[in-house]
UniProtKB/TrEMBL annotation:
Pfam family, one: BRO1
Similarity section: Belongs to the BROX family.
Protein species of origin: Homo sapiens
InterPro entries given in the database record: BRO1_dom (IPR004328), BRO1_sf (IPR038499), BROX (IPR038898)
BRO1 domain mapped to chain residues: 90-338
Keyword Secreted: no
Keywords: Coiled coil
Ranges in coiled-coil conformation: 267-294
Classification of source organism: Eukaryota, Metazoa, Chordata, Craniata, Vertebrata
PROSITE patterns (alphabetical): BRO1
Listed name of the protein: BRO1 domain-containing protein BROX
Coiled coil is among the record's keywords: yes
Gene that encodes it: BROX
Length: 338
């Protein structure tokens, strides 16, 4: 079970037949339309297939998008758009707004919507791997790679294809640039979480881990701020997750910063840093409960039940006690260390 990453639901879409009687003539054109229909159906099928891996997803996505290009760009290699761009109406739901679909008669709308789902699939694949208690090094690398791919897809859609839409997305819809940006930032933050876990495992310098944790917390804060003007009815749950992750990684930053201070014999400052970590960890725990009680899109995950989350609580407690002992020795130099 994936305790760690919040995931919004995949987008749903209406079937598309790609039958253009009276427009498409000749066996070659008919074959392209048949291939479009079958490759689209295959891609949609893979989104919910738990046996699908990144190679299968990439091959299926490449197959469909290469055919769809004929409905977007002119085949004569000019900068003109295809005459078929507006021939087909496409319907897609949004990840936050339930079963209320958006529709546009535009192949670019289809490309962005399907690409959005491909990116979401990579985040869900990463989440499934990351949800394991004893994740291997290779699996951790796969999680990191999948989240980077997802961020790259979201970013490419936002920068290269959104500006081409004739009808801009309404506020809070998936194809609004602000919402896509939130997905990009979340993917970046989660990829960095993998880096932090690896740094801790390899026992890197506490100062490095503190810096990475602080940067990750800022990513989550930025993602939360990006969603701040959306309707609470469909953004509250997602934002609660982003907020609790921000508190959690800020606590991590204070905890490891405290270790750095302790190593420099700055016990008083180390204690204050660990006390701040303790407060933030308690706040993150409270937010986990609030997140679980908040209604909204996506299944409720349980970050507080994840081993990585629980380990921080023990680390803060033990490091604070160590700082207080060391500080006691400094205040009472004649006391013999045990």
């Amino acid at each position: 079970m994936t305790h760690w990453f919040h995931r919004n639901p995949l987008k749903a879409t209406a079937p598309v037949s790609f039958n253009y009687y009276g427009v498409v003539t000749g066996p070659s054109a008919s074959k392209i339309c048949n291939d479009l229909r079958s490759s689209r159906a295959r891609l949609l099928e893979l989104f919910t297939d738990l046996s699908c891996n990144p190679e299968m997803m990439k091959n299926a996505a490449d197959s469909y998008f290469s055919l769809l290009q004929g409905f977007i760009n002119s085949l004569d290699e000019s900068t003109q758009e295809s005459k078929l761009r507006y021939i087909q109406n496409f319907k897609w739901t949004d990840t936050l707004q339930g079963q209320v679909p958006s529709a546009q008669q535009d192949a670019v709308f289809e490309l962005i919507s399907m690409g959005f789902n491909v990116a979401l699939w990579y985040t869900k694949y990463a989440s499934r791997l990351a949800g394991k208690e004893n994740i291997t090094e290779d699996e951790a690398k796969e999680v990191h790679r999948s989240l980077k791919i997802a961020a790259g897809i979201f970013k490419h859609l936002k920068e290269s294809h959104l500006p081409k839409l004739i009808t801009p997305a309404e506020k809070g819809r998936d194809l609004e640039s602000r919402l896509i940006e939130a997905y990009v930032i979340q993917c970046q933050a989660e990829a960095q979480e993998v880096t932090i876990a690896r740094a801790i495992e390899l026992k890197h310098a506490p100062g490095l881990i503190a810096a990475l944790a602080y940067e990750t917390a800022n990513f989550y804060q930025k993602a939360d701020h990006t969603l701040s003007s959306l309707e609470p009815a469909y953004s509250a749950k997602w934002r609660k997750y982003l907020h609790l992750k921000m508190c959690f990684y800020t606590a991590y930053a204070y905890c490891y910063h405290g270790e750095t201070l302790l190593a420099s014999d700055k016990c008083g400052e180390a204690i204050r840093s660990l006390q701040e970590a303790e407060k933030l960890y308690a706040k993150a725990e409270a937010l986990c409960k609030e997140y679980g009680e908040t209604k909204g899109p996506g299944p409720t995950v349980k970050p507080s039940g994840h081993l990585f989350f629980r380990k921080l609580g023990n680390l803060v407690k033990n490091t604070l006690e160590k700082c207080q002992r060391e500080n006691g020795f400094i205040l009472n130099p004649n006391q013999k260390k045990k």
